[in-house]
């Protein structure tokens, strides 16, 4: 597979110095009126000016502007078996029985199939309001588990897919070495994931210039404490710091109670407790799921500045449990949302289910509103954008994300003409988008880096050809897994 070429969007959407005027826009401090956005040819916001007069030649948004949502956790290939694991395979199905089915698909994905699946998925994300994605990439090798001639082959497929779709990407190659705590050898279903620590560091060095050319971000994902032994975790983090001391670090942790029990049996500590005692966890880290923590773990993890990576639709699909977000926020914790297994690809749907889970758990309503933002959808959007941008390594050095000078011009436009939104105030339109529409139906357009990627009801220009390629890829995978 060839290296990534410098990014070139379709000619009709080529990035150039631009501007957009919105009657209402959601800025980091809340809703503002008559906002003029201006950006440079690199897609960076030069000015965000409330209380402006619209220049005569400046286009007007068809509805309120909201910041683009970062998707902080994604396994692209898993989109191909969405809906195909919803049957009882064991007397009591769980994450672990689902994982066995997932391995069968992972064993058959070729570079061409992965690129077609990811291209369609990333287009779906754009149409659903995501403007960047953190790709937790762990299928590295050929079908027999041997490295490709170019060890970066599958990673390159993902970068090309993001480039073609026009979505921002943080690529997170996954270090995976063992199948369980205490160095249990990997099983046959994991053969395509396995890397030595040195191999991982060479891959990062190989990918770094590719990501720089594309404007992508490169980080690292130690898969989990059960898959990365302590010595390897220490060595790979030191190696990452030598390559890029600012690179984001993501890890699956405390997703399942069985994982917590196994960690206790191995070390005498719970997963989050062990990680905090043995690694310098800080604001570069994203603790994906972190569903099962004690009060002390909530407090200690939040103080590090790490982002909790919450994936409500996948966590519900897999029966993981419910993260206690009020407790995390009370400790000062940052958070964002991800689509994970991509059983659902919808930014607003993740927010809705996250709030509903907290309502069911606490038997209250409007749980995630704040004193500053009593509208739940507004409060959640601002917090998820902030945490997601930090986790993706795409926030400004001072930590501000969203529609702010110096940040990327990533945003979505709500459709003020949509029946669920029409005649409402801007905050109520966002609430209706999250809680009362079909979620994607109320989006008018999505912009990434100053380039309009969707239009006419948030439809991507490549949707038909990408959808056809995805369907063909899935058909091939089904035929191979059922053979």
Over the alpha carbons, how many angstroms does the gyration radius reach?
21 Å
User: In terms of structural class, how would the helical and strand content be classed?
Assistant: alpha/beta
SSE string, helix = H, strand = E?
Answer: EEEEEHHEHEHEEHEHHEHEHHEHHEHEEH
CATH topology of the domain at 11-67 and 413-457, what is it called?
A: Urease, subunit C, domain 1
* Straight-line N-to-C gap: 28 Å
The helix count comes to: 14
How many distinct beta strands?
A: 16
* Shape-level CATH architecture of the domain at 11-67 and 413-457: Roll
CATH class of the domain at 11-67 and 413-457: Mainly Beta
CATH H-level homologous superfamily name of the domain at 11-67 and 413-457:
Urease, subunit C, domain 1
The main pleated sheet reads as: 5 strands, parallel
What fraction of the residues are assigned to beta strands by DSSP? 15-25%
Helix content: 25-40%
* Uncertain stretches of 5 or more adjacent residues: 1-15
Basic shape: globular
Summed over residues and divided by their number, the pLDDT gives a mean of: 93
